[in-house]
Amino acid sequence: MVYYVRHSLISFALFFTTSLALNAQRVVMVSLDGLGYQALTSDPVAQELTVLRDSIARGASATGMQAAFPSTTANSHAALWTGCYGDVNHITTNNPPLLPRAAHTILERGNGFMATQLDSEAIWVTAAREGRSAVAHQPTQGYPFTPMNSGHGAIVLNGYQTRLLAPHGLFTVKNTGAQPDGTIQIKHGPLSLRAERRNGALRISVSGSKEFVDVRPAAVETELPRQRPLARYFSAGLAITQPVPAVLYFRLFELTPASFRLYISPVQELAMTEPLPALFRQAGGFIGNGPEALMQQGALSEPEYLEAVELVIRQMTRHAAWLHAHYQPRFFQGYLPFPDEFEHSWLANARNGQKSMEEFRRWGYVAVNRGAAEFAKLARKSDHLLWVSDHGMAPVTRYVSVHEILRRAGLGDKASYLYNSILVNTTDWKNGTVSPAERAKVVEQARQAMAAVQENGKPVFTAFFTPERDGAKYGIGGPAGGDLYFDLAPGYAASGRPNPALFDANTKPRGVHGFFPGRSDMQAICILRSPRVKPATAWPQLRSIQVAPLVADLLGISPPVNAKAPSPLH
């Protein structure tokens, strides 16, 4: 009897401890923008993503994941968060038509990255409502704050859709002002900065402030960031309080008696559902995306740009670590804007054999892996670590004007281009001209006009999709969706710009997404390291709308109310 009681107590204690541990399990979900399944599994530079490969070996990985259609960032992420596609959540592209239809024309576009039109609840709101503390860090549709993205106590931070007061800046003697006292006056958005030469460095302060940082010159980085500190030649942060709280970082690439080249990070407002002044003091500033525009303009070289990419990753992961430590949430959502940004610039030329572009990509992937390593630290072995992405990427060297195709077909006032789809100007839209009975005819006319377009004897448009036939599978259509969707031959992309020549004569090769999500190069990733899956588990191809139900499953809660697919664990 004594043995029985002792054994029962021990069994109960073990059960209680195990249950407590399971109940305390956290879910860390990280989206790596633009990381496609095809790239992860077959691109040589993606071999640098050792952290993700470790998660694959220790957990489960889908053989691709279907993005939204079109496979663009805003709507594909919205599908991840809500468990439904744009026909339900109303985020149908990066720039969806404005709703309601009766109040807007088909030419009026919104910002799909903002939450203004989001009509389905995000998983972190669901988690918070079900008693699981949740933090969403830099999600699409994270601002402005609405019941769909921040209700029930969910903590949300977003700096991508708030006010950009000063963009990335590169300053030289040509765009600054030398003062009579020998100092340099720098205008960075609304800020007036003062730089003073001191002991082979620049001492920089906000005019009228006693706070300063010393910025020393260093030659451009040449060592890949496998072990060294990220962004190691950037200055310490210079905190500002007006016009918004922020922290500036400086990189001095050159300093001579007659010249200098100084990079300054952006001033971006950071929106928070609750004030967190200690975040800036203890973790530093928010950067946002990298300075791709400065590189495209020739103001920054590729290695200089990559140093700034490292700064973005460093600050994003420092913020993530601070938030995770501060709140200890049961669900944490994180994000990196890479490799999407640099793949837009370099993928196409790298595929065309430019070895320098391939090496720049490798540098970028090494930096992404460093960021992934920091995110992975947020998840204990008993937790669930979930890696996802929004879409893949494909090289494009030729653009075709859908606007011109519609004009030549006499449909200029009857239909409009919406990213890789056609929107018919039906009478439910403001100033609409096409009756419901005529809609199908206009759709067919547009399809025939595009199907007839050829170059070098080959069709440019290769497949067509309609909400009536394909809506259930791809989530197309709905009040903010198109009436006819299409895909293009490899190397081609659609444009909504007027172009009487139909094809762009001087297209700069770029990495592009937004195509039919069934294409292998548009497939996203889904990788789960979890006590609930066996090592090296291979899942079949998933749909992005299964991610929110998967998170809910791992948290032991019901999925968001509009979720349309099951968790892959069932």
Task: Please provide a written account of the structure.
With 570 residues, the chain is of the alpha+beta class. 30% of the residues lie in helices and 23% in strands. It is built from 16 helices and 32 strands. The protein has a nine-stranded mixed beta sheet, sandwiched between helices. A hairpin with a 5-residue loop joins strand 11 and strand 12. The radius of gyration is 25 Å and the shape is globular. Residues 1-22 have low confidence and may be disordered.
Features:
alpha+beta; single chain; 570 residues; 9-stranded mixed sheet
H/I helix tally = 16
Describe the largest sheet. 9 strands, mixed
Which class do the helix and strand fractions yield? alpha+beta
Beta-strand content bin? 15-25%
Helix content estimate? 25-40%
Strand order of the largest sheet: 18-5-4-19-1-20-30-2-31
Mean pLDDT: 95
Low-confidence stretches: 1-22
Number of strands: 32
- Principal-axes geometry comes out as globular
Amino-to-carboxy terminus distance: 42 Å
Radius of gyration: 25 Å
